[in-house]
Amino acid sequence: MALITISKNVGSGGTKIAELVAAGLGLELYDDNRLQSEALQSGVRADDLRHLDEKIPNLFDRILGANTELYLDVMESVVYDVSKRGKGVIMGHCSQMLLRDFNCALHVRVNAPYEKRIENLTRERGLNRAQAEKLIEKSDRQVNGFCKYAFNMNLEDPFLYDLILNTEKLSDETAAKHIMELAASNEIDACSISAVKSMEKLAQKKKVEAEILRNDISLYMLDVDVQENGRVSISGLSTSRLDAERIPEIVRSVPGVEDVKSSIVVANLM
Known about the structure:
The structure is a single chain. The protein is an alpha/beta fold. It has two domains: 3-183, 3-Layer(aba) Sandwich (Rossmann fold); 215-266, Histidine-containing Protein, Chain: A (2-Layer Sandwich). The chain is built from ten helices and eight strands. It has a five-stranded parallel β-sheet with strand order 2-3-1-4-5, sandwiched between helices. The chain has a three-stranded mixed β-sheet with strand order 6-7-8. Helix 10 (241-252) links the parallel strand 7 (231-238) and strand 8 (259-266). It is globular and about 60 Å long.
């Protein structure tokens, strides 16, 4: 089994390469549409998916604060939910950063020189040069900005990847072949039981945090600990007795949660 993340620049051919890899290895391809479908099946609300992309939050989102946190928790819960299966091809969404501590994931970056990207976009999407340049500039700014904002990491850091492909001279088929050969090699381990369990806990933790945020309660002084068998512990401080009383019921409403232990202390910080 292979768990692969593929990060790409727009116009690099990364989407087609990911499709070829998934088909060649008989794996599911988790692109934007499939990730949103998976999220809905796991209990994420449709309203939370309207902006599930890699754009850096705007000023309004920054001011609201909780919405930005909610957005990130939803995105992370989806990636962890998919990854706990131990196989599949995940496209984008900074999945290489989320899964960087799991040795069982193969992380691939697909790049192409600027002129090659222009050429691909004008041919494949029927854009003129000015339109292609604008799309590249906008996409690079938003995707790079999002990963930097969310994880304080540089998307182009070579140490985030096991394989970096320059598609200037490589065909889509050749690039896909290199990825498939590496994924099938002995150097890439299958996800261990402990890794899968860790992903399950992380996915559930993000769902719990998202539900708390959705109810306009800050996570700033709270700690969420997800254990096995659907058990969740909430600890920390709250400045509102009402919120402290509400939180256990909110957490119990999350699919998969069987038991909630709360040790929240109500404190007056004034």
